[in-house]
Amino acid sequence: MTDGRTALFPGTFDPFTNGHLDLTRRAARLFDRVIVAVAPSPAKGTLFELDERVAMIHSAVKPLRNVEVVTFSDLVVDCARRLGAQVMIRGLRAVSDFEYEFQMALMNRNLSPGLEVVFLMPSQQYTYLNSTLVKEVARLGGRITGLVPVVVEERLRVKLGMTARRKAAPARARRGAGRKR
User: At what angle do helices 150-160 and 50-61 cross, to 10 degrees?
Assistant: First the structure.
């Protein structure tokens, strides 16, 4: 039985960004219980294994007493029903997110009419941020400090190797090409 104050925040979270953390914090202020539900999503070709993502999220949300982290591999509406959530949290960064999220919300409403979808906007500094961009910047040796929780930054560096910056530099630049005139 639920009191209607449990919210499910589902996603792949590969990796969990500061935008995700911001939405989790916002949801934790609005709901008595927030469950971050992590999907395996093998079709997406995730960088981190499911258990790695769960561990990083656990670490990032540890200070939030009313937040739990679980995994799911079925329909999100079935996960919500199983966990007693009556609300699903989805983030909207920009207008471009709206069409996809709207379609998903309508499909989920069709599958589970009692499950409400609540759209939350992240803080302004995270409106451009997504996991794909973070991984690409990290792969190419760019700075990701402030884009992800510290534990995620550390794991990304280990996963991608400490020489990511060197690998990203074009071979020509490493040899000093372009100096001849």
Answer: 150
Within a domain: residue 17?
yes
Q: Is 131 designated active site?
A: yes
Active site residue 180: no
Domain membership of residue 114 as a residue range: 6-126
Annotated catalytic, 159?
no
- Digit-coded pLDDT (tens) for 115-169: 999 999 999 999 999 999 999 999 999 999 999 999 999 999 999 985 444 444 4
| Catalytic residue of the set 25, 93, 139, 159 | 93
Integer-rounded Cα Rg, in Å, for the chain is 19
Inside any domain, residue 175:
no
Residue in 33, 81, 131, 135 annotated catalytic: 131
Q: Which two tokens stand for residue 14?
A: 């590969």
pTM value is 0.85
- Domain containing residue 117: CATH number: 3.40.50.620
- Domain presence at residue 169: no
- 44, 143, 165, 167: which is the annotated catalytic residue? 44
Contact 21, 149 (CB under 8 A): yes
Number of domains in the chain: 1
